[in-house]
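pipeline/complex-builder :: batch 7 item 3
reading input block
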Amino acid sequence: MTEAAASETIVTACLLIIGNEILSGRTQDANLAYLAKGLNAVGVRLREVRVIPDAAETIVSTVNEVRAKFDYVFTTGGIGPTHDDITAECIARAFGVPLVLDPEARRRIAANYANPADLNEARLRMAHIPEGASLIDNPVSRAPGFQIGNVFVMAGVPRIMQAMFDGLKHRLRGGAPVLSRSVSCSLPEGVLAKGLGELQQRYADLDIGSYPSYRQGKIGVALVLRGTEAPRLAAAAAELAAMIRRLGGDPVEEEAG
Amino acid sequence: MTEAAASETIVTACLLIIGNEILSGRTQDANLAYLAKGLNAVGVRLREVRVIPDAAETIVSTVNEVRAKFDYVFTTGGIGPTHDDITAECIARAFGVPLVLDPEARRRIAANYANPADLNEARLRMAHIPEGASLIDNPVSRAPGFQIGNVFVMAGVPRIMQAMFDGLKHRLRGGAPVLSRSVSCSLPEGVLAKGLGELQQRYADLDIGSYPSYRQGKIGVALVLRGTEAPRLAAAAAELAAMIRRLGGDPVEEEAG
């Protein structure tokens, strides 16, 4: 997105991925792309992602920084029953409110256990949310996430995170969804660069990205056009395809969403 | 890592992933985990990752924020020949130096082309680095990355990024490498949580993480212990295995590195 194109109403979001296991390389994040596409479909643009450790001061200060800067903040990770699950208490601290036992959250979690003794102290921690927060449903394993202000707190396990996001996205108020088209060819980027830069200047309302790939020793490039107006995208994609043909390439067009 | 354990000499790093294609969900990042593990092996701890768009102001201000905050900063993405490749000029702006043509970078890039006319203006952009920077070798496609101060600028294409990192890591001065052990079992986290929290308190010099998984309908949990002293890790892992057995589980231990 060029800065010039940012004048229309744009609704922005930031994702905080909370967890040492991502920063150590042990676990590959699988939530970013799901959230990015889901937000895009409701007209919200993911503008920044931060991966931060399970360290209270870092979580509190980061949440306070990004909730002031973006329209929506989503967090993943750190809402389980173990000692390293500190997201809920950190969000409460960030908002300056106490962490309180939520009766409905307690009821949902209790329903997992036939024997009431199994609802131990650790599991009851998951029924505590910041005062004033509302629950986010967890159809997979019941222990809910929560929303407070513009911050949505979700689980880190992808299957649960995805179910939580699908259940909360009706709460979001987005702008115009971003549409995209993709034109691929096997010309090198260095041959396309000049014309591509000129095209970007003529279509300053679009965001044109060039993504090279090397597969089985073959150079390829995907040129992705993004914007909110389908006719503008179609016109730019047609110009781009014509340019590729002029340069001796074979454009392959896809409507990407 | 508990804050109490941070008293020894710890060398920290931040990764900036620069690119709209990651934020749109089009491309799945594959560099974070590689960098995390590679840094860990040389005693540098990846403490934060940010994914930011191809937007000049954001890149400049983020680079300046994180290079003051962490010992090392690594960037991936945005150093190709097209209009959306703005990382080098943004790093130059962040350091307050001009972008200059580097003769050695030019020579390496020129070697890709039998016909000198193919070394066009777009490709020559890749031979420009901030004044005072040193080159990072690119054994895959030649166009180099660069280092300036504590900031290492690498390509986004994973095969190139990995080769660049492997070639530069001898420049890094790390602390003690972080060792880890993993103990897995099929008990639920809620059963383990109390004992695990007590173990973390007794081993405040270690970082103990609990990572649940749901595979083929089966609950599992990996308990990962991290620290710099192998005997402490071994002692904690043995206590953890004994605890799991007491709770009726079957611990599976792995030395994780």
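note: The mean pLDDT of chain A is 94.
queue -> next item
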